[in-house]
Amino acid sequence: MVPTPPSSTAAGAVNQSQQLASREQTQFKKVVRFYEQKQYKKGLTAAKEILKKAPNHGETLAMKGLILNSTGKKEEALENIRNGIKNNMQSHVCWHVYGLYQRSERKYDEAIKAYKRALQCEKDSLTILRDLSLLQIQMRDLEGYKDTRHQLFILKPGQRASWIGFAMSYHLLGDYDMAFSVLEEYRKTQQDKPTEKQYAIEHSEFLLYQNLVMRDGKQYDEALKHIQMYEKDILNKLVLQEIKYELYMLLNQYDRAETILRDLIERNAENKKYYLDLEKCLHMTTSYEKMKFYDDLIEKYPRADAPKQIRLQFLTGEPFSNAVGSYLQRGFQKGVPSLFQSVKFLYSSSEKVKIIDTLIQTYLKNIVTHGTFDSLSNGNNGVVDEDIEPATTLLWLQYYLAQHYDYLEDTNRALEFIDAAIHDTPTLVELYMFKAKIYKHAGDFQAAAVLMDEAQSLDTADRFVNCKCTKYLLRANHISVASEVAGKFTREGSSPGEYLKEMQCMWFELDSAKAYRRLKKYGEALKKCHEIERHFQEFIEDQFDFHSYCLRKMVLCAYVDMLNLEDHIKGHRFFRQAAQLAVEIYIRLYDHPLSENDSDKNENADNISASEMKKYKNKQRRQQAREQQEKQKQIEADRKKKESQRNKNKDDGEEEKIKEEELVGEKLERSEKPLDEAMRFLQPLEDFSQSDLETQYLGFEVYYRRLKCTLMLRCLKRMKKFNPNYPKFHSCLMKFLMLIQKHSWTDERLKVLIEEELKTLYKHGRSIEDMNADFIEKHSDSLAHRIEASKVMLLLNPSNNTKAIQFLTTLSPSSTDQNYTTCSGIYESLRMGDFGQCDTQIIENYRSECHKLWPLANVFLTVQSQPQQQQQETNSTSPPSPYSSSSVSILVLGCRSSGKSLLIKRLDELSNGLHQKNFDEFIHIQSTIGKTLTLFKWKRKMIELHELGGILAPIWKSSYSSSSVRDNKIIFDKLIYIIDTTQATASSFVIEHLENIILNFKRNILIILNKYMEDNSMTQNELNELFDLKTLVSTQTQVNNHIKLKNRVSNSTNSSVSTTDGDINTECENITQTGGQSRIEVMEINMNEKNVMSMENGNDESPIEHYCQVSCQLSSIVKSTGSATFTLNDSMCTCILNGPSELLQRQQLESSKNQLHIDVQYQTRQGSLTFYLDKLIEQWLETIVQSTIIKQRYPRSQINLILYEEQNLAGEATLLSCICNTLCLTMLDANLPMKYAFASIPVVLHPTKGLLLLPNTKDELTSKTYFVIVFETTLNDVLALHAIGQFDIKQLNDAIELAKPVAKKLFQFYRNELEKRVSV
């Protein structure tokens, strides 16, 4: 709203100093107009012109402040507004502006006070009254709203909004007669209006609202007469018919209601409410009447599902069997994925479950045997092709059977049927989704996440599947991966987390909060809870603009519904769950405050050594520092972006939103008053979720810690009122009784009040021990009640918790609620110490007993902390594959284009009986982008080959590493790693892959050397020297090393290598073999395809950037085979590689051997001080290249390397190292076949400081002795050395040892840069 300029009358009443000349008055009106048009610059300019002549003019100062507020200058704006009020206390403009400012700050109470003060100065101002009414309805000040609307009605009786708002105020107060009278008087004034379309719509909405007022006032006769009288004027015929039949039913005119309901069913045969209301109209009581009624409706509407589902509710026995059988058969035939959900309500009856189980088992047997639902006495005789059910019928029957047994908690049978369905149709997304659901219900959240991710990969364009995958990943505590998966459907270029927050995606935030809580990251969990709370606050704020809009557009019924919704918006389940989670966390933080060292605490601290713990803490601190740095950069970038956008839009008048205080997880979890923060969430829970028992329990726990006896008593009374058998009511009551026994009362009235109220909660005269014993005896078959009884036992005897824990951990098959959720909660409570210090053997015994009941549950799996225990792991104790209990799951890894897809293709062909296929025939294979799953049978085993594309190399470790899965659960039975022997680039990175795999994967590993014995492949000696297989295998103790030639599978039309059936059988037998002791086996086969290198990050402690200034840009020159620009401190070089290409004739004559010809050229920049080193550098680098590149791969070829010195402010050592590293990066960028990568480190011998690693320019120029040391990747040998100056052998050896760790970090830098290139 825009403040109204002062009238001449008002101007005469104020101080003469506040009056403006006519020219300035005109200028002031322009200021108001500029503000209204959002031309803020012009408005400020005009205000300054006025203030030059009247610097103390209050209204101009106020308007200037209002404009400044719109441009985001809050403090300056408030100062100007306050100065304006001080200079003119009697101006309604100043007070109105102050109210507008407070409203923009969401301080509605202060704004209302300012508006009322403005009305004292100008009581008939329509603008102020209108603004005041909006704030009053926003704050639900209904009495004040009625008075304000009455004033507006008196001032503007000719406006429709005055009538409607006045009537609305009485309606909301419950004075329905007055509201109807006002509306009726207004309706009479509209009788002569023209019948335009817009008026007809608005008039129709007005009549519906008028009828709503009558129905709310329970004037049903008058409402029915009203709706009949104006039936022709109401355009929404569906709402009209529904109102009429509801009124007929309320007035007991069932025959008329029946007629309307039958018409509505004709219009929408799937609305169950119509059928149920029609039942009431016909007064049907017996099942026979209902069955006949619904049979007629089903015959009339054969395609409607609603009457068929309603009929199943009351039918029993044979009629139910026939009805549900026909319903299920139709669902199987049509392939309805939601069939089980449609009949899930029937599973509350055990009798009906037995009937359904018998039916579907019969259907399965008959379809498998005869191909039909019905059995035949003469086999298939008499069955025509039309009677045979299609193959999809069996598929959907198996799908339903899996859902059926999963609901009955028969996990094994559910997996059996879903595996059979997947085997028949391995590309159906729904099957993988439900298999994930089975594992989720079994407690195996890791396997469930893997399967849901598999389903998502089958249909990446389905948003629903993507959301499901995200939820399952969050449930498995993979928060970052879940964010990446959700990011596939977020705005490009934005952070997924920020986008989902902006879109108010509360299910994601809620599941993230739960995941953070399970990970004991309480600060992040609270941050998500506060974000959800802010969303609901935004919902409440967003209704402000609708108060005037709805009255103007005459959508009155919808407006009343919106007001009712907003009044109870915080009763929504999202807010309730988030608030309860926040209160639980704050209670825990109050009971167990975080110490300074808790941020570095590792959950498995007891299972790792002190050195590993130190490394872990250092790594965690560096990671937090990097995250904080990245976060600051992002915040700064966002700030600059918003500032530029704000400056750009100043003239457009886009007002800034209120800046919310940034939520910091660490600050939230270290709150000084956690109980006060808990009350922030508890208060709306008690207001809007009062009937929720968990709310009352949390309220009691908070008030118990705050010693609020009357509030605790209120929570106890509500718990007993809603459910007197609620388990937690007992423990809370016992805690309260123990508290008041120890409490010394100072207020006698309070003591009497509590004693009187306690009489309604329990029988007096009994001890707490006796009541707890009776409670145990009464609820002996309930595990939830046993938990609360154990808490009371612990309260009675805190020093001796053994009896309580033994009672708690006793599992009994007679318990009615002994389920996974309850038992896992007990196990976690024991581990967290909620029942005091507990013997680890007791916890382990309880875990073992639970593991027998739920063998797939992650939380109950054994934690193998010792290497010896891991090596003794056998098939009988190892967790099953997440895909099938009877299948072999194999993970296939390898660099890009190494032959993974071709191997899987060959094996799939073999499994289909193609033994005589010509394996020399070329097959076109596309590179795998992401993941693939291939299933086939081999010797009665189901083989599942899971291939991860080479482009996913950075996340390979998350698939095979036991540390990535909770409790060391190993997902895959075997791992295959494929190496292309003809393109073995960067062999050191391949070795590092194998080292990581051997250390982290505790099952069988098969290393395949592809394209072995091809013309351009490496020899046996070269392979052993290059990959150092014996050393690799020896890193795993008690592992057998089998290096033998198994078979060769060729994909090259030029190859003369053939394959026999026996070789293939041997290979498949080797691949499918599982069990026994962990071993590593090397297989050599032949599948010729181009190889692209991919590498994995190491786990070094700190990057090279911590030691020196280093940067790199790969592929910086477009028209080249490879190129790189590398910077080391104050030196920078660029290298270009061209080739391999055919040798020129002259060069062939000069070359005595048919080998690779390497030409290295080094060009200094103009004015360089190292020009004399040109030839030396070229010879030195050529020697290094000759020793690292695999020359046999390119006979009679040439490679040209050109190096440019871009900058050198340092000495010769740094420059030579920079040149050498640039050369290696260029060769890697060009994918040249190399035995190993190399890195150069400069070391100087300073006259006073001694040996200096990576010296700065000053120290290097001061030193007369330096070393340039070149390491190969394994760091076992020095590849090359260049030294100048006087030194001894000891100093040289010390320099080499000093440079080794930094060389390792430089190799890590190489990997990071190459992974960036591959990911792009």
* Count of alpha/pi helices: 57
- Mean pLDDT score, rounded? 80
Given as residue ranges, the uncertain stretches (5+ residues, pLDDT < 50) are 8-14, 863-885, 915-922, 962-970, 1034-1069, 1072-1079, 1086-1100, 1148-1152
Helix content: 55-70%
Strand order of the largest sheet: 2-3-1-4-5-7-6
- Name the shape in a single word: globular
The whole-angstrom Rg is 40 Å
Percentage of β-strand residues: 5-15%
Structural class: alpha/beta
Describe this entry's structure for a reader:
The protein is α/β, with parallel strands linked by helices. The protein is 57% helix and 9% strand. A seven-stranded mixed β-sheet has the order 2-3-1-4-5-7-6, sandwiched between helices. Helix 52 links the parallel strand 6 (1041-1044) and strand 7 (1080-1084). The longest helix has 39 residues, at 610-648. The radius of gyration is 40 Å and the shape is globular. The chain starts with 7 loop residues before the first helix and ends with a helix. The model is unreliable at 8-14, 863-885, 915-922, 962-970, 1034-1069, 1072-1079, 1086-1100 and 1148-1152 (pLDDT under 50). Residues 1-21, 596-669, 865-884 are annotated as: Disordered.
What labels would you give this structure?
seven-stranded mixed β-sheet, alpha/beta, 1320 residues
Please render the helix and strand layout as text.
Blueprint: H1 8-13, H2 22-36, H3 40-53, H4 58-70, H5 74-87, H6 92-104, H7 108-121, H8 126-138, H9 142-155, H10 160-173, H11 176-189, H12 197-216, H13 220-229, H14 237-250, H15 254-267, H16 272-282, H17 287-300, H18 306-314, H19 317-334, H20 339-343, H21 350-369, H22 391-407, H23 411-424, H24 429-441, H25 445-458, H26 463-475, H27 479-486, H28 496-502, H29 506-518, H30 522-542, H31 544-553, H32 556-567, H33 573-591, H34 610-648, H35 665-669, H36 674-688, H37 693-706, H38 709-722, H39 727-742, H40 748-758, H41 768-778, H42 783-796, H43 802-808, H44 820-832, H45 840-853, H46 867-871, E1 887-894, H47 900-911, E2 931-938, E3 941-948, H48 957-960, E4 974-980, H49 987-1000, E5 1004-1010, H50 1020-1027, H51 1029-1034, E6 1041-1044, H52 1061-1072, E7 1080-1084, E8 1110-1114, E9 1122-1128, E10 1131-1142, H53 1145-1150, E11 1157-1163, H54 1174-1188, E12 1197-1208, H55 1212-1229, E13 1238-1246, E14 1250-1253, H56 1257-1262, E15 1265-1272, E16 1278-1284, H57 1289-1319
Parallel strand pairs: 1-3, 1-4, 4-5, 5-7, 6-7, 11-12
Antiparallel strand pairs: 2-3, 8-9, 9-10, 10-12, 13-14, 13-15, 15-16
GO cellular component, one term: NatA complex
Organism: Didymodactylos carnosus
InterPro entries: ExoRNase_PH_dom1, ExoRNase_PH_dom2_sf, NatA_aux_su, P-loop_NTPase, PNPase/RNase_PH_dom_sf, Ribosomal_Su5_D2-typ_SF, Small_GTPase_ARF/SAR, TPR-like_helical_dom_sf
